[in-house]
Amino acid sequence: MGGAPGLRHPLLVGAAGLYGGLWLNRHWLHWPLPALVTSHLADLLALPLMLGLALAAHRWLIDPRGTLPVAWLVGAWLGVSVWFEGLLPLWSARAVADPLDVLAYAAGTLGFHYWLNRPPGPLPRA
């Protein structure tokens, strides 16, 4: 009741805010940002956001106190990396394969694993 607690985690909310700010800047504001920020920050934030939503769904549908298995995290990292850095550039002129993006996806996945993929705290007493 009251929504999925994991979706209110300060790190996940911060990642969503940063990602939203990058999107807003890219499409409307057009403020000059450092190349490292415009090239790799969204990739760093992408998997923690996707996995955060997956964790919330897992807790809502399967186990309210559960976490995502490491194999799922590795699978998500591999899937996103192969799709966006391997296959999509073959079909889209706008997509560019960048090995540093694969490292950014990995760093985001590791960050999710260490800071967000934790069982929730103790249940409140009635």
From TrEMBL:
Keywords in alphabetical order: Membrane, Transmembrane, Transmembrane helix
Domain of life: Bacteria
Membrane-traversing stretches: 6-24, 44-62, 68-88
Protein name: Magnesium citrate secondary transporter
Naturally occurring in which organism (per UniProt): Hymenobacter nivis
